[in-house]
Amino acid sequence: MPVRVTLDALIVARGLKARDLAAEVGISETQLSLFRSGKVKGIRFSTLARMCAVLGCRPGDLLDYDADPADMIRVGDEDAG
């Protein structure tokens, strides 16, 4: 997948525990864990904004984009796989 979650590095850099971040953001530890592992299809902008506010960062600091043409699907092909 071309989008990777890089949240773990920020958690460590800020000296936080995942459970504390989840509590401050207002999500469950399970939801945070799923996001950290990249096992979610999306995240609400409001949740992303709260994470950034707590961590003192920007959305681009939480996500990384790796453009690999093999991972890309053309518009309209979403249901093909």
Outline:
The protein is mostly helical. The protein is 47% helix and 7% strand.
Defining key terms:
single chain, two-stranded antiparallel sheet, 434 Repressor (Amino-terminal Domain), mainly alpha, 81 residues
What is the CA-atom radius of gyration, in angstroms?
14 Å
* Overall pLDDT score: 87
The main sheet comes to:
2 strands, antiparallel
How does the helix and strand content classify structurally? Answer: mainly alpha
Adjacency order of strands in the biggest sheet: 1-2
Q: What's the CATH topology label?
A: 434 Repressor (Amino-terminal Domain)
Describe this structure in words.
The structure is a single chain. With about 80 residues, this protein is mainly alpha-helical. The protein has one domain: lambda repressor-like DNA-binding domains (434 Repressor (Amino-terminal Domain)), CATH 1.10.260.40. It contains five helices and two strands; from the N terminus they run E-H-H-H-H-H-E. It has a two-stranded antiparallel ribbon with strand order 1-2. It is globular, with a radius of gyration of 14 Å. The two termini are about 15 Å apart. The mean pLDDT is about 85.
